[in-house]
Amino acid sequence: MQDKRLGRVNQLVKEEISTLLQRELKDPRLGFVSVTEVETARDLRTAKVFVSVLGDEAQWTGSLAALVSARGFIRNWLRQHLDLRVTPELDFRPDRSMEHAARIQALLRQVGGDAGR
Question: S-S: 55 plus which of 30, 51, 59, 65, CB 3.0-4.6 Å?
Fold first, then answer.
């Protein structure tokens, strides 16, 4: 039962942060950022927030710096918008799986193109 509850908390935190990033956060360093996953600790005191950034390394660096800078604002937003006993401390982490998948797709296309020769 606790795993279901934790899953719902993860989903709620993910949705709220995504909404906040789209509508409220106005940092010029922030690029096109997507929240890919949230892993909240069982005691709800901490949450790892995995994000993906569309762009080059400079956009990744700037976006992660903006998120770390806004961590208190985002946590306060969660406190106001979610009915949780404890609002977790947020740890933003890069999720480069989309980048990795695109690279694999490009390699597969190259191999597929070379196989036809």
Answer: 59
Closest CA to 27 of 54, 61, 63: 63
Tell me, what amino acid is at 109? R
Using CA atoms, how far apart are residues 53 and 67, in angstroms rounded to an integer?
Answer: 11
Q: DSSP class of residue 56?
A: -
Is the CB of residue 21 less than 8 Å from the CB of residue 66? no
Backbone angles phi, psi at 77, to 5 degrees: -60, -45
What's the pLDDT tens digit per position in 1-14?
568 989 999 999 99
Domain assignments of the chain as residue spans, ordered by start: 2-115
**2-115 maps to CATH 1.10.3720.10:** no
**pTM, to two decimals:** 0.82
Helix, strand, or coil here: 19?
helix
* Structure token pair of residue 35: 């929240």
Closest CA to 40 of 69, 65, 70, 17: 17
- 3-class SS letters over 83-96: CCCCCCEEEEEECC
